[in-house]
Amino acid sequence: MRLNSLCRALFPIAASASICLGTAPVHAADAGNGFAVRGLGSQACSAYVSALSKPDEFARYGNWLMGYATAHNRLLPDTYDIIPTEPGVDFPNVVAVICRTNSQMLLETAASSAVTAIKPLRQAASSPLVVVSADGKSVSIHQESLKRLQAALIAKQVFKGAATGTPSPQFTDALKVFQRREAIPVTGLPDIDTFIRAIVKH
Question: Rounded to two decimals, what is the model's pTM?
């Protein structure tokens, strides 16, 4: 992911721009605006960024982040899954984008900011997983999430098919056109960067 462009796409309004500049909204659990942070979430973002190039260390952080996302799935209203795409890669990548610009921020705070950024993409109810393939690579995605992305690309006059939640060569081509237009990696796959730019970015 390209750091500066994704940061602008994640936080397009002034009230949220502070996340990219080194601060994040505070969510408090007690009267004194504080709560205990457990496990890897209590470490600084710099430790997480350092772990990105070390597979074993990164796996530990990734597991913590998946637990964090699961807790939000359980606690947020009208939420089956806060992550519309493959969570094992995409959610940690969004957290990494935030951490790279906020090295002293707690990992938990960065993860909370990531949840806030992608909340508009959340899936409200369960739907089947479908496999989308392009150029020898594949991802699994909830059908309803794919339908939302197709509808967004139709609205942007990029995809001329129907929003059925079914992959097709025409949809893959439309994704590539949109990705080129947005100057992001052209994969033909519905990754989190593409979702953010198609649905969240205005």
Answer: 0.78
